[in-house]
Amino acid sequence: MAKKSAKSTKSAGPAKATALEDISGKDYEKALKKLHVELVRLQEWVKHAGLKVCIIFEGRDGAGKGGTIKAITERVSPRVFRVVALPAPTDREKSQMYMQRYIPHLPAAGEVVIFDRSWYNRAGVERVMGFCSDEQAKRFLAGAPLLERAIVDSGVILLKYWLEVGMDEQTKRLQRRIDDGRRIWKLSPMDLKSYGRWDDYTRARDEMFQTTDSSWAPWFVVRSNHKRRARLNAITHILGRIPYKTAPRDKPVLPKRKAGKVKESNYPFKIIPEAY
Q: Do β-strands 219-223 and 111-116 pair in parallel, antiparallel, or remain unpaired?
């Protein structure tokens, strides 16, 4: 059984009402730019030092996992920052040990792997929606800290984040997915079914924290009612949890360009119509 972290468990409560408003777009972009510079520094140090980093994002539907991951990865290399979002398991995978399908995706030296939902599917959506038995879920909760201890002992920096969104805000976000043609793909039939099971998810979340919030792999809660603040806070926390320095690197210098001696081709290039 995992040693509980009282501080993290206390933070797992519902997203409380706050007088704060979300940060303005201008201030958000300014702050995000600075954090992106630090993420690139982190990336170069991860490659240089051979660090292995695994970041897990969990939360209810509409909590902002995808947007947070996009904010982290939009200015770094996908060869270093690798996002894993596994589809539903195949029949073969269903017959395997539950954790087996996730293990091959763990980071090697010089990699940061981000799980957009992880093995904790079993503690959340699978349990709430009846895709696994209660016995299977409890077996998972008992075994997850042991596996995570082995992962950490192998040299992986393991960070687990729960994005906590309130009921009213979740409703607004899911409704926007219905009304906005650009977002409708983000709303699955499973999202609609799970929407009505708020209390079931709360119970599942609380038991997950009680059993898997360990001293070696604690849960960290990101209050995500304000998306921009949540993204900035999550990135700032990640940067503070991974030790990194500026990797040694010579400043690039553009070489002299050889140009002007080749005549332009008369080939009839097929230029696309310029509608804008």
A: unpaired
Kindly state whether residue 6 falls inside one of the protein's structural domains.
Answer: no
pLDDT tens-place string over residues 138-172: 999 999 999 999 999 999 999 999 999 999 999 99
CA distances from 184 to 177, 192, 196 (A): 5, 12, 19
Residue 187 is inside which H or E element, if any? Answer: none
Classify residue 53 as exposed, middle or buried by CB count within 10 Å of its CB (0-12, 13-18, 19+): buried
Say if CB 237 and CB 8 are below 8 A apart.
Answer: no
pLDDT tens digit string along 241-270? 999 999 999 999 999 988 888 888 899 999
Amino acid (1-letter code) at residue 207: E
Would you say residue 276 lies in a domain?
no
Domains identified in the chain, total number: 1
Collapsing DSSP to helix, strand or coil, 178 comes out as helix
Tokens, residue 207: 């038991």
CA angle, corner 55, sides to 6 and 35, nearest 5?
A: 100
Alpha carbon dihedral 31, 33, 39, 41, in 10-degree steps, equals -120
- The CATH number linked to 29 is 3.40.50.300
- Please, which residues have CB within 8 angstroms of residue 62's CB and are 6 or more apart in sequence? 165, 169, 170, 173, 174, 177, 191
Mean pLDDT over the full length of the chain:
91
Position 4 in a domain: no
User: Would strands 156-164 and 52-59 be described as parallel, antiparallel, or unpaired?
Assistant: parallel
Which whole number is the average pLDDT over 131-138? Answer: 95
Tokens representing 146 are 């042991």
What is the amino acid identity at position 139? R
